[in-house]
Amino acid sequence: MSAHAEAVGHGGEHHGPPPANQSSRIAPTVLGMFLFIGTETMLFGSFFAVYFFVRVVNPDASAIWPPPPFEFPKFVAGINTVILVTSSFTMHWALQSIKRNNRRGLQAGLVLTILMGLAFLLTQFIEYAHVGFNTADGAFASVFFGLTGLHGAHVLIGLLLLSFAANRAFRGHYSPEHHHGVELPGIYWHFVDVMWIVVYVTIYLL
Questions:
Q1: Is 95 exposed, middle or buried (0-12, 13-18, 19+ CB in 10 A)?
Q2: Are 59 and 147 spatial neighbours (Cβ–Cβ below 8 Å)?
Q3: DSSP helix/strand/coil, 169
Q4: What domain count does the chain have?
Q5: Cα–Cα distance between 174 and 14 in angstroms, integer?
Q6: Residues ≥6 apart with Cβ < 8 Å to 25
Q7: Residue 9: burial class (beta carbons within 10 Å; 0-12, 13-18, 19+)
Q8: Is residue 17 in some structural domain?
Q9: Distance, C-alpha 22 to centroid of its chain
Q10: 115 found inside a domain
Q11: 4 in a domain, yes or no?
């Protein structure tokens, strides 16, 4: 029996619309984040479509990418990949810590994740400054800056969300029962990490 039916059955008055039906397996906020990530995946998909189109229509691109004499900094990007993948583990540690009521672990995990995210962005800016080409040097350059820049923007958004979560964590706002403010940024951060792996393999290695 629903809450609305119980209230009516006991002579109570229900004001407003009846309570919304909710899944017992996933919270509405988490479902909303997954739906948002789905839209972001389609956005990245459009950029990847442009990348593969450029590779297909250019006969020389399939064999040599990027075209000589340009090179992508694979080693630096590989280091950045390690940094970002590691940050997923610290994010997971933060969430698991608050579920166990370990506030110190939560705070440390969030701070480490933020620091590694900042290190990733700083390394990417340094890479841009020394890569040796810009968006005017061809379609390959536009694709490179478009995909990596789009991802960098998502990292920046993720850092903002994590900063809000960390601020609340240091003010004692989370508990084992109420930690959606950590879980939702964590889901987004894991998405950013996974998407970077796809970007790295596609742009730097293929």
A1: buried
A2: no
A3: helix
A4: 1
A5: 32
A6: none
A7: exposed
A8: no
A9: 26
A10: yes
A11: no
Q: Closest Cα partner for 47 from 194, 137, 147, 141?
A: 147
**Domain of residue 169, residue span:** 26-205
What is the Cα–Cα distance from 196 to 139, expressed in whole angstroms? 21
pLDDT in tens, the chain (206 residues): 444 444 444 444 556 665 555 555 777 888 889 999 999 999 999 999 988 888 777 766 555 777 777 788 888 899 999 999 999 999 999 999 999 999 999 999 999 999 999 999 999 999 988 888 887 777 788 888 999 999 999 999 999 999 999 999 999 888 888 888 999 999 999 999 999 999 999 988 87
* 168: CATH: 1.20.120.80
Between CA 175 and CA 177 the distance in angstroms is 5
Q: Which amino acid is at 153?
A: A
**What tokens does 150 get?**
């789009």
How would you label 119-130 residue by residue, b for 16+ Cβ within 10 Å and e otherwise?
Answer: bbeebbeebeee
Percentages helix, strand, coil for the chain, rounded to the nearest 5? 75, 0, 25
Query: Is residue 14 in a domain?
Result: no
Nearest to 113 by CA among 200, 189, 176: 189
Structure-token pair, residue 114: 């933020």
The sign one gets for the Cα dihedral 65, 68, 59, 55 is: positive
